[in-house]
Amino acid sequence: MRTLTRLFALGAFVALAFPGGAFAEIRTLVYTSAPINIAPHAVAEGTQLAPSPQIDGSVVGMSANVVDMLGNPIPPTDVMLHHIVFAKIGVPDTTCSGIENYGGRMAPFQAQRFWAEGEEHFTLGLPDPYGYPNRAGDAWGMLYMLMNHHALPSVVEIRYTVRYAVGEARTPVTPIWLDVRNCRADPVFNVPGTGGPGSRYRQRASWVAPASGVLVAGGAHLHGGGISVDVADTSCGSLYTSYPTWGGIEPRPVMHEPGPTAMTAFDDPAGRPVRAGDTLQITATYDNSRPHVRAMGIAILYFAPRPVSSCASHTSPVPAPTTPERVTVALLKRPAGPSRRVTSTWVGDYAFGAQRVTIKHGTRFTWRFIGRVAHDVTLANGPVGLASPSLAHGTWSYRFTRPGTYRLFCSLHPALMTQVIRVR
Ligand SMILES: [Cu+2]
Questions:
Q1: 81 alpha carbon to ligand 1 midpoint, in Å?
Q2: Residue 251: its pLDDT value, please?
Q3: Whole-prediction pTM value?
Q4: CA distances from 418 to 155, 195, 339, 362 (A)
């Protein structure tokens, strides 16, 4: 009887929401970003407003790629889509009260991250009957990071496809963004790579579920050197583990350690229960036998609130083993000038002050950022993984405890800004 009443109430709701019985359908909507200019052998990162459906409905799927100004797809060997993140502006994020923009400033508004894609090309597909609710008046923003492998400037656009249910009541999902370096536009960490053969390096973060419900879909993001991303309910065990697949044609020149070409995702219409008050823990596991810089560990989960009484662990499928291509990131420009015994230098547009430096081990070296645009200090190759945040002002320092040759570059301007530090 109660079920009947509930069905009746639902029917009344649908009739009210869609007077005249609007035709229920799933539309395929294709949008294009504003043009993005990328300098030769450089990285473009930034934010844009993103066109979005101008009608009430629910997002049930998303995918994106990089196209030229004529709409032709651009392969990653030309312009690499490092990552794009879509967020709904003015709506609080589920796991983060404020997001630090590129350059270290807090974003001036709330934004709910609801989908992202990186080199692994995570395609969103929510199982029936779920959907991410969206209103005609909602505004979307897009954060992007693209890398140009050409010696010429490129102008590209992001083309994205939204599968969108209209005229139909979907069960609403909330996106849950779990990130071991959460609340940053550039949520990176560095794997030192000093653990020896077979060693692992882990980063973790956790989040307490404020409501009960079920996880119905998810995807994850790792960088080169990644082993897995696991999401566990600390009282029940693993709910989802994502594994990378490696391979494909690696772009030349090598401007970063290649990321996975795929990550295992899941969709589960029955849902994986999480109780209010349960702690969800994300663990990003990396190889620690060699350095991996500017690494990430992210999972995005789609959560449908509803009463649940218990939780259970899940074993995730492991893809057929693949081996990452072992690349050495070489400097694209030979550091110039006399070798200097200094313990600090400047970083400007577009050079390091002292490009060839010799120091004693144990020395703390300081970089002073004085550019109009942001730069960073990133290990290309050397004994220990290290990288600074991207900065336009302020200083960053690092204590060199292991002797060897550290070849460094700005990961945003790798063809222009290089430095070598010899640690005796
Ligand atoms: Cu730079």
A1: 19
A2: 75
A3: 0.91
A4: 25, 27, 14, 22
